Amino acid sequence: MFPIVEAPRPANAPPGIDPAVTAQWLTWFLRDEIVVRRRIARAVVGLSGGVDSAVTAFLCARALGPENVFAIRMPYATSSRASLDDAQAVVDALQIHCRTIEITAAVEGYLQFEPDADARRRGNVMARTRMVVLFDQSAKLDALPVGTGNKTERLLGYFTWHADDTPPVNPIGDLFKTQVWALARYLGVPQALIEKAPTADLEANQTDEGDLGITYERADAILDQLLLGYSDAQLVERGFAPEDVALIRRRVDGTHWKRHLPTTAMVSNTAINEFYLRPVDF
Amino acid sequence: MEPPIPLAAQPARVRLAIVQMKPEKGRYSANLATAARAFGEIGERPADLVVLPEAAFTGYFLEGAVYDLALPAPRFAADLARTWRDACGDAPVDLVSGFFENADGTYYNSAVYLHVEAGEHRIVHVHRKMFLPTYGVFDEERFLSRGRRLGVFETRFGKTALLICEDSWHALVPSLAAVKGARIVIVPSASPGRGIEHEGELSSIARWREMLRLIASEHGVFVIYAGLTGFEGGKGMTGSSCVVDPRGEILVFAPAAEACIVRAELDLREIDLARASLPLVGDLEAVLSDLLLDEDLPLPKGRGLVPDR
Fold first, then answer.
1. Fewer beta carbons within 10 Å, N or C terminal of chain A?
2. Chosen from B107, B144, B231, B240 to mutate, greatest number of chain A CBs within 10 A
3. What domains are defined for chain B?
4. How far is B223 from chain A (nearest CA, A)?
5. What ipTM score was computed for the predicted complex, to two decimals?
6. Superfamily assignment of A19-204 in CATH?
7. pTM score, two decimals?
8. Do B232 and A28 touch (CB under 8 A)?
9. pLDDT digits (tens, 9 = 90+) for B77-87
10. What is each CA distance from A160 to A50, A51, A85, B167, B170, in whole angstroms?
């Protein structure tokens, strides 16, 4: 009898990371992009109480020193107390600066004229108001706003356009959510933030996975392979549920516009970013 | 027993320095000043050969700005030689650096090999990158033209080849360089790092290391790799400048993310010793014509070498 040595089937797990290598690389990124290139010493981070902004704050503290990191908590009237407390735990762990700026009055200042606005519109107004605050604080503090959007939400379009995606640098935008969790464990982000269900906290009892209709674990595994070019049929063949594949494909294909700058009508041979091409750091 | 016969009037050793540059994007003069400081430090302990990375004085991702920054090879060579002389006086040296070349309105990603001595300098060779990555994050062939010739040229250290970045990713290229006589392969490079899944280092760094060791050990050549470092619009160049000996052993390996000077001493006698124990270049020479004259290969018939313009 010959013993059989068989290749394993693909695991269909989300891609892992070496968190030490990743943390080091992202720390270098923040130093180079903020301090070396832009000659800015400080960062300002909107701290929501979730794991993404916590990881971003931890990375900024490593890259710039905690004394140069300014966390801003921006609760709205309906934001949960737990979110504020979780954000505070990050501030306490890192010994970074922190300020709490309520956005309720600013949001209501506009929404009072739009009493029929549904939850989606109200959520978008809150997200955009937070960016108004963050950018104004950045001007006041001479600090660069640092983005906190992860690759999963960017791919699924699960964010407010020209709000969460606005800061000029983002250390975690090429990390899937499950990779952010792995990095959070390595960096020492307080356990409660890693274990709780992720939420945009724009409505009561809202969770990301409830909104999306799929777990991050499954979404990331599918996204990883979808981006490598596998067709839907191949993904199903490789063991993913057809309804999950369809959901992910629909969300990715329906949101390409959210990952681009506005579409501009081209009328010349010198159209910006079409003919006139200069890199962002030129 | 008689002592071994000396090979040639070549020096047996090369004192090498690699400047792992972290350029400021598009600031050519400022980057020359940075190189001058590095040359000054190198000059404190003599060096015979100094190598700088691809796009060392401009940064790599330039898009349309490449046309603003590309220079004729003689002009770039003169700038580089003057920078050396300003820092180190009349100390003779061979200098290698990547640059974007403007050859009468045709643009290349090039590297120059330059000899500097007694107030003069001489261009020994200009290599124009043959494999222009134009996929994924890369966009070279949108802006640049392909080099057409793999040159192997004489230096005071023996026959040498310059391969720029992706040139060395095709196993055939270093193989042909070795068959054409190269004993030293110099690789100026700019490699944006990626791959965080594996333990210990970025996958792209691991891949380079593996490949450079294979090039050196298969052909019995010294491989000198000069990597650009620093982030360019979120894409981090992985430095990792290194020297591999003709048995595939790494003599020195620089960190990924900091500008530094890498130093090593190359004992050129190692090349013949390595080839004596693993004579793969000789074997390839013997078989190469059978491989290349294979009618199934997609090669045009009767085509000679195309010289660079």
1. N
2. B231
3. 13-289 (3.60.110.10)
4. 26
5. 0.91
6. HUPs (3.40.50.620)
7. 0.94
8. no
9. 999 999 999 99
10. 16, 18, 24, 43, 44
